[in-house]
Automatic annotation (TrEMBL):
Domain C3H1-type: 81-109
Keyword entries, A-Z: DNA-binding, Metal-binding, Zinc, Zinc-finger
Name of the protein this chain belongs to: C3H1-type domain-containing protein
ZnF bounds (C3H1-type): 81-109
Species for this entry: Musa balbisiana
PANTHER family recorded: UNKEMPT FAMILY MEMBER, ZINC FINGER CCCH DOMAIN-CONTAINING PROTEIN 20
């Protein structure tokens, strides 16, 4: 498994803060010899999943790794497979009694960074996007086929709390235009 260079997404590396770590510039990506597939893998499987190893105070909001109490923290989709469908209980209450064992996505980050969804739709701003966090493709080259690297397994059938497969939750309509204002309040 590829491990991202320690500094490729490090907030201390000024070239990669343009405009944010989820939109690493093509020049920066090439300078580090990281392929698009490797970068995508990092964002889908390690971004806000892998615990931050820094033992000193730093800007955790711009750090790509997970920190205690952070709402953007995600479960590793390889260790805790979920269907990439929003958890109805988590959406309503902000918590889920099934916790790590839940088969549905908890929150915006877990939903849009799921291998089945990440960069499967074009960003409405395209290359002019200046969002600090954006889960969408900004050029046709960044666009990934929907369902690549995962997908909703056949026979999911009736989902938790009356949500049925094929409904608005599965298609992402619940998170179609994510409100990311809460990202700046990532600690409870």
């Amino acid at each position: 498994m590829f491990r991202m260079h320690n500094d490729i997404l490090n907030y201390e590396n000024p070239i990669l803060v343009l405009p944010c770590y989820l939109q690493v510039s093509e020049a920066a990506r090439l300078a580090y010899g990281v392929t698009k597939a490797e970068l995508d893998d990092f964002l889908m499987y390690e971004f806000k999943v892998k615990r931050c190893a820094k033992a000193y105070p730093h800007q955790w909001m711009t750090c790509p790794y997970a920190h205690r109490g952070e709402k953007a923290r995600r479960r590793d989709p390889r260790r805790f497979p979920n269907h990439g469908i929003p958890c109805p209980e988590f959406r309503q209450t902000g918590a889920c009694r099934r916790g790590q064992k839940c088969e549905f996505a908890h929150g915006v980050f877990e939903f849009w960074l799921h291998p089945m969804r990440y960069r499967t739709r074009m960003c409405i701003s395209g290359p002019a996007c200046r969002r600090k966090i954006c889960f969408f493709a900004h050029t046709v080259d960044e666009l990934r086929p929907e369902g690549l690297g995962g997908g909703v397994p056949a026979g999911v059938g009736k989902l938790a709390e009356g949500t049925s497969a094929g409904g608005p939750e599965e298609r992402g309509e619940e998170f179609a235009e994510p409100d990311l204002r809460w990202v700046y309040d990532l600690v409870d």
